[in-house]
């Protein structure tokens, strides 16, 4: 079986730790995304799985067998490179068949697999062209074609969409995901783009400076980021944050916004406070996702503790939604509202939020203070047909 | 990438064209690789000063440019109205090429040293001045007669004198006295005949040492000419219009040369490099060698063993060709400059200076009176070998020189080398050389 | 009308921009070539004080000239001996120098340094190496009991000696082009091949070599023209001897022009050489070029 297991895998260059004890078990048929900003070690991790980089410490198991010392070709893995790694002097056909020819697969079998892949990818008409005669998307498909004909149960992809324009990227996301499900292969996919991670992955692993930040299903990660870094990394626009101090004085507990000149106090009770073991005066970071901040009707009764009166700094109307920017203390916050909101700079608006959307992070460690037992399971709304 | 390769290619091609063509066109006069000395940059001399450009080559080791420049400076001091500007022009071949270009560009040097054998070629080009007028005005034949006839032979055609001998050499036999002793030969009795030389050479040959080496690269014809002279007469007529390569005597001479290697096994087979023969001798890799007297100082300074210098051995008679460079003057320069140039030539060939030049370089002093000079007498006394070359000059002859000298010489050299490398036999090769030379010389014999 | 005028103006401007280089090209390339062509139809040697038109006599004579055929065949052997070997060696050295982890700089310098040495100096060095009895090569040959091999003085050895020396001199230079070519090949291609488990030989044959073809093409042309251009060493080492065994076309042109002073013949020989080089280059460019992949 094509299960991939990483056991405390590390990579050292000279004295520099690039990947630090990364562990994960990737199930057969799973679409697993390694995501993080550049330099976080995601590509290095992938290359260690591929066998292109030596593993400095830890163990890599594929199908239950240790493969640290097995050369790339012995790992039953295919790989799609960032720049597709197409041989510029070979035709599409020869590019796709290169691996099969090397592995001396029979001619008949080659033809069969080629036809199958070309049909799946819709590139049958391009087989006799050279890579330079292809568009970016077509090259991408050829690279996928190679992975398909190899019939390896595991496929690695290193930022395969980064060279495509936005529209095509969106299209290819779906296509790759579909392909993976159709073929039933295990996919380990590296990207710096959290949208790809959210939309494509069964699970994602967020990395930063070679350390694992969080592993989980995309929505779990989104809704319950393990720490401030993950919170700010996921979502577009990312989560709004601001410095605050925890105040707990008897019945009322909540946060005092340190960046706010009026040092506004927001009472937070549910799930926080003594239950979470936060001491009075602890510096914390308060986080709210843009879509959690919704406008209140002008006439509605404003609950001071669940709303903020803010002055609009900027507006982006995107058609289906509007992004409203305002300042909270010295931080620029963004709110995402459905529909078109013709606000103007300087308008005063009151935005409200629900208590359950508030996240609190330890300002020192960045750890999420509010992950409760109930929420950890995560309830993702099913799509109702 | 494709365009880059194409443009790189076109650059490379045009370079090839340029280099390919410049060799062809520089002779047409459209360009002048030789930098004729530009007059008009006088510094301190008064108006009416005559400036002379003087081209000279250097063909042997040592700081010769310094010596020549020093002599020119001395001349300038002694002659306030004249400034000689010496221009070092490389090898003999380079010098000829540069002068040739300058002549075609109508800016010939005022005076130059060139190979004595360029005589006929330069006459064909109508480039050089006969010097008889100057000689007549300046004391007449007394001056000319003082030069050794062997040297002067390359200067004169049809009773006219075209050049004055300057840095002249001849071939002598160098031998290793220690090696002679080692094999029981009398070190004071070098071989005097061909038979003796072959016999001695065979005796001297042992593992790691040859009996004799006669160089055969570059100046093949010169060495061969020595053998030919010893077996009778010179290879060409004085007027340079006829050659005698394929006479039975000359075939015999070549056969003797080949036999030293093939029959007597006393000399390496194949072509022997001119420049390595003296090193071979100094290293003890050969016990005897034919080489120019120009190497005398070199051998004297570097030999770690006792060595001797002797006449080249005789067959019918002793014989050795001369070699080296003479002073020439060129047509197309103005009369005043010609006067000055003649003065310079006279200055450079004064007995005292000829003697010093000989001591400094190893060239043979060109004039009999030079050997009467005190410094020369002393030098010969201390180093008797220096006199051998002079004494041999009694049997010295003009160096091989004909019309269209380059081509005739090549025909001879090529065929000699063919024989020496065992690709042809002596008689056939010399016959071929004769035919080729006759063809080249045909147009001069009309 | 106005449009025509504008177009004319643009053209004049373009020509003006081209003028300086055009003048140099005319003056130093086309004019000399033209002069050479003209002179090749003249008798202009020592026997004829004024050059006169003699039709194709020079070319006829050339065909009957044994030495011409000898130097031409020599030159072809010389090209055949130097071009493929030096190019192959350069490729090998580049692959090695590119791979070597330690002493990369040293290896590159070591390979490259013969190129920096002027040909005249190289010729002098090798003159010593080839010296019989005590030359460096003779010491090596001594172990085989052949210390007295006369490399330059023997007609059958001398060409090999020259070819070997020129390969030594040139390979390092060509290596630089190959190194640049190798740098241009994406590392991804090699990694991709490694994922497929392709052997080093397969990778070379199917990836590296085809992708280096533009470099190979360029280098071969340079090597080929060099085999006709490099004659400096002959002046120092053999003067074309023994008996023309090491003589090459360009040196023969030099001899004809500056030793025989036969300018008509020298021009005719020059034309032959130029045409020959152009023909070979044309074959390489318009024939082989189509089969080469360019990025």
From TrEMBL, chain A:
Q: Which InterPro entries match?
A: AAA+_ATPase, ABC_transporter-like_ATP-bd, ABC_transporter-like_CS, ABC_transpr_MalK-like, ABC_transpr_MalK/UgpC-like, Mo/tungstate-bd_C_term_dom, NA-bd_OB-fold, P-loop_NTPase
Look up the record and report any one GO term of the cellular component aspect: ATP-binding cassette (ABC) transporter complex, substrate-binding subunit-containing
Q: Name one GO molecular function term.
A: ATP hydrolysis activity
Entry superkingdom: Bacteria
PROSITE patterns registered for this protein in UniProt? ABC_TRANSPORTER_1, ABC_TRANSPORTER_2
- State any GO BP term from the record: carbohydrate transport
What is one Pfam family matched by this protein? ABC_tran
Name all ABC transporter domain ranges: 4-234
What are the protein's UniProt keywords?
ATP-binding, Cell membrane, Membrane, Nucleotide-binding, Translocase, Transport
* PANTHER family assigned: MALTODEXTRIN IMPORT ATP-BINDING PROTEIN MSMX (PTHR43875), TREHALOSE IMPORT ATP-BINDING PROTEIN SUGC (PTHR43875:SF15)
Please report the name of this protein according to its UniProt entry.
Answer: Glycerol-3-phosphate ABC transporter ATP-binding protein
From TrEMBL, chain B:
The protein's UniProt keywords, in alphabetical order, are: Signal
The reply on keyword Signal is yes
Gene3D superfamilies of this UniProt entry?
A: Periplasmic binding protein-like II
SUPFAM superfamilies, A to Z: Periplasmic binding protein-like II
Pfam families for this protein: SBP_bac_8
Q: May I ask which residue range the UniProt record assigns to the signal sequence?
A: 1-24
- Bias (Low complexity) occurs at 22-31
Against InterPro entries, the record matches this protein to:
Bact_solute-bd_prot1, SBP
The record's region (Disordered) falls at 22-46
- Keyword Signal among UniProt keywords: yes
In which residue ranges is the amino acid composition biased (Polar residues)?
32-44
Name assigned to this protein: ABC transporter substrate-binding protein
From which organism does this entry originate? Brevibacillus parabrevis
TrEMBL record, chain C:
Look up keyword Heme and say if it applies: no
> GO annotations under biological process?
transmembrane transport
Q: Which domain of life is it from?
A: Bacteria
- What is the membrane topology noted in the UniProt record heading this document? Multi-pass membrane protein
Q: Which residues form the ABC transmembrane type-1 domain?
A: 72-284
InterPro entries, sorted: ABC_transporter_permease, MetI-like, MetI-like_sf
Provide the transmembrane region boundaries. 12-34, 76-98, 110-129, 158-182, 203-224, 265-288
Q: Does the keyword Transmembrane apply?
A: yes
* Alphabetically ordered keywords of this record: Cell membrane, Membrane, Transmembrane, Transmembrane helix, Transport
Task: Return the Pfam families for the record.
Answer: BPD_transp_1
Which family, according to the similarity comment?
Belongs to the binding-protein-dependent transport system permease family.
User: What is this protein's name?
Assistant: ABC transporter permease
């Amino acid at each position: 079986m094509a299960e991939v297991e990483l056991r405390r895998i590390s990579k050292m260059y000279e004295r520099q730790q690039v990947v630090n004890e990364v562990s994960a078990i990737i199930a057969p048929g799973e679409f697993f995304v390694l995501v993080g900003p550049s330099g976080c070690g995601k590509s290095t991790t992938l290359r260690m799985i591929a066998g292109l980089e030596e593993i400095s410490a830890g163990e890599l198991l594929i199908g239950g067998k240790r493969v640290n010392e097995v050369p790339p070709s012995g790992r039953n893995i295919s790989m799609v490179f960032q720049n597709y790694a197409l041989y510029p002097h070979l035709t599409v056909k020869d590019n796709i068949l290169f691996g099969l020819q090397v592995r001396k697969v029979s001619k008949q079998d080659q033809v069969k697999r080629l036809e199958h892949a070309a049909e799946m990818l819709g590139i049958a008409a391009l087989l006799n062209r050279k890579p330079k005669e292809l568009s970016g998307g077509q090259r991408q498909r050829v690279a996928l074609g190679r992975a398909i004909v190899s019939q390896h149960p595991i496929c690695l992809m290193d930022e395969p969409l980064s060279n495509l324009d936005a529209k095509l990227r969106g299209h290819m996301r779906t296509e790759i995901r579909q392909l993976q499900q159709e073929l039933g292969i295990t996919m380990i996919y590296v990207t710096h783009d959290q949208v790809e991670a959210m939309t494509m992955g069964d699970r994602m692993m967020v990395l930063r400076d070679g350390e694992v930040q969080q592993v989980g299903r995309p929505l779990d990660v989104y809704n319950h980021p393990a720490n401030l870094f993950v919170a700010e990394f996921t979502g577009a626009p990312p989560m709004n944050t601001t410095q605050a101090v925890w105040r707990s004085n008897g019945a009322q507990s909540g946060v005092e916004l340190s960046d706010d000149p009026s040092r506004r106090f927001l009472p937070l009770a549910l799930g926080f406070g003594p239950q979470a073991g936060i001491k009075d005066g602890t510096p914390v970071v308060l986080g709210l996702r843009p879509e959690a901040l919704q406008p209140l009707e002008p006439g509605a009764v404003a609950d001071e503790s669940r709303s903020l009166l803010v002055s609009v700094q900027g507006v982006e109307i995107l058609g289906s939604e509007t992004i409203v920017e305002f300042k909270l203390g010295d931080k620029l916050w963004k709110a995402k509202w459905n529909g078109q909101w013709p606000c103007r700079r300087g308008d005063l608006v009151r935005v409200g939020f629900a208590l359950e959307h508030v996240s609190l992070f330890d300002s020192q460690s960045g750890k999420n203070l509010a992950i409760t037992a109930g929420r950890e399971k995560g309830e993702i709304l099913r799509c109702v047909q | 990438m494709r365009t880059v390769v194409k443009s790189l290619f076109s650059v490379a091609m045009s370079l090839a064209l340029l280099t390919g063509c410049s060799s062809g066109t520089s002779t047409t006069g459209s360009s002048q690789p030789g930098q004729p000395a530009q007059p008009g940059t006088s510094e301190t001399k008064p108006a009416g000063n005559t400036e002379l450009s003087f081209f000279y080559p250097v063909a042997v080791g040592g700081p010769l440019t310094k010596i020549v420049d020093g002599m020119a400076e001395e001349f300038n001091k002694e002659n306030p109205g004249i400034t000689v500007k010496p221009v070092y022009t490389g090898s003999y071949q380079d010098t000829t090429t540069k002068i040739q270009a300058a002549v075609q560009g109508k800016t010939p040097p005022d005076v130059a040293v060139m190979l004595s054998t360029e005589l006929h070629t330069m006459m064909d080009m109508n480039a050089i001045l006969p010097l008889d007028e100057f000689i007549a005005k300046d004391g007449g034949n007394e001056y000319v007669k003082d030069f050794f006839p062997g040297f002067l032979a390359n200067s004169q055609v049809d009773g006219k004198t075209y050049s004055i001998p300057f840095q002249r050499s001849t071939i002598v036999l160098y031998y290793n006295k220690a090696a002679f002793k080692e094999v029981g030969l009398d070190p004071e009795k070098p071989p005097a005949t061909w038979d003796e030389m072959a016999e001695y050479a065979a005796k001297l040959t042992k593992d790691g040492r040859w009996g004799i080496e006669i160089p055969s690269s570059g100046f093949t014809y010169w060495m061969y000419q020595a053998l030919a002279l010893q077996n009778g007469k010179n290879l060409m007529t004085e007027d340079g219009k006829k050659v005698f390569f394929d006479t039975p005597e000359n075939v015999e001479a070549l056969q003797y040369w080949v036999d030293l290697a093939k029959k007597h096994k006393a000399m390496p087979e194949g072509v022997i490099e001119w420049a390595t023969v003296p090193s071979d001798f100094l290293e003890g890799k050969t016990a005897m060698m034919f080489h120019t007297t120009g190497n005398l100082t070199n051998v004297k300074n570097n030999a770690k063993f006792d060595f001797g210098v002797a006449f080249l051995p005789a067959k019918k008679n002793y014989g050795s060709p001369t070699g080296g460079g003479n002073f020439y003057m060129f047509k197309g320069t103005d009369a005043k400059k010609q006067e000055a140039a003649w003065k310079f030539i006279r200055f450079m060939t004064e007995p005292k200076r000829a003697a010093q030049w000989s001591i400094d370089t190893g060239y043979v002093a060109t004039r009999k009176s030079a050997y009467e000079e005190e410094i020369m007498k002393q030098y010969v006394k201390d180093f008797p070998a220096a006199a051998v070359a002079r004494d041999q000059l009694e049997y010295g002859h003009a160096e091989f020189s004909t019309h269209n000298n380059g081509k005739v010489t090549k025909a001879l050299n090529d065929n000699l080398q063919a024989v020496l490398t065992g690709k042809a036999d002596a008689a056939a090769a010399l016959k071929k050389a004769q035919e080729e030379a006759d063809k080249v010389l045909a147009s001069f014999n009309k | 009308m106005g449009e025509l005028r504008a177009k004319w103006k643009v053209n004049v401007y373009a020509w003006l921009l081209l003028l300086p280089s055009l003048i140099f090209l005319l003056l130093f390339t086309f004019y000399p070539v033209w002069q050479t062509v003209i002179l090749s139809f003249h008798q202009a040697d020592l026997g004829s004080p004024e050059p006169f038109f003699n039709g194709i006599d020079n070319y006829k004579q050339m065909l009957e000239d044994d030495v011409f055929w000898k130097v031409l065949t020599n030159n072809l052997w010389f090209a055949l001996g130097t071009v493929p070997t030096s190019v192959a060696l350069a490729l090998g050295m580049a692959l090695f120098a590119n791979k070597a982890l330690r002493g990369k700089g040293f290896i590159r310098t070591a390979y490259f340094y013969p190129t920096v040495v002027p040909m005249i100096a190289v010729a002098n060095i090798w003159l010593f190496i080839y010296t019989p009895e005590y030359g460096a090569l003779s010491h090596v040959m001594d172990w085989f009991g052949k210390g007295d091999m006369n490399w330059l003085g023997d007609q059958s050895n001398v060409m090999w000696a020259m070819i070997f020396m020129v390969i030594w001199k040139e390979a390092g230079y060509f290596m630089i082009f190959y190194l640049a070519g190798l740098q241009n090949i994406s590392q991804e291609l090699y990694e991709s091949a490694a994922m497929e488990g392709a052997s080093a030989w397969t990778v070379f044959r199917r990836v590296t070599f085809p992708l280096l073809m533009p470099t190979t093409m360029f280098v071969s042309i340079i090597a080929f023209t060099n085999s006709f251009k490099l004659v400096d060493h002959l002046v120092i080492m053999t003067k074309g001897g023994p008996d023309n065994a090491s003589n090459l076309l360009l040196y023969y042109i030099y001899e004809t022009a500056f030793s025989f002073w036969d300018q008509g013949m020298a021009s005719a020989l020059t034309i032959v050489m130029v045409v020959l080089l152009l023909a070979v280059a044309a074959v390489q460019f318009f024939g082989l070029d189509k089969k080469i992949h360019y990025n």
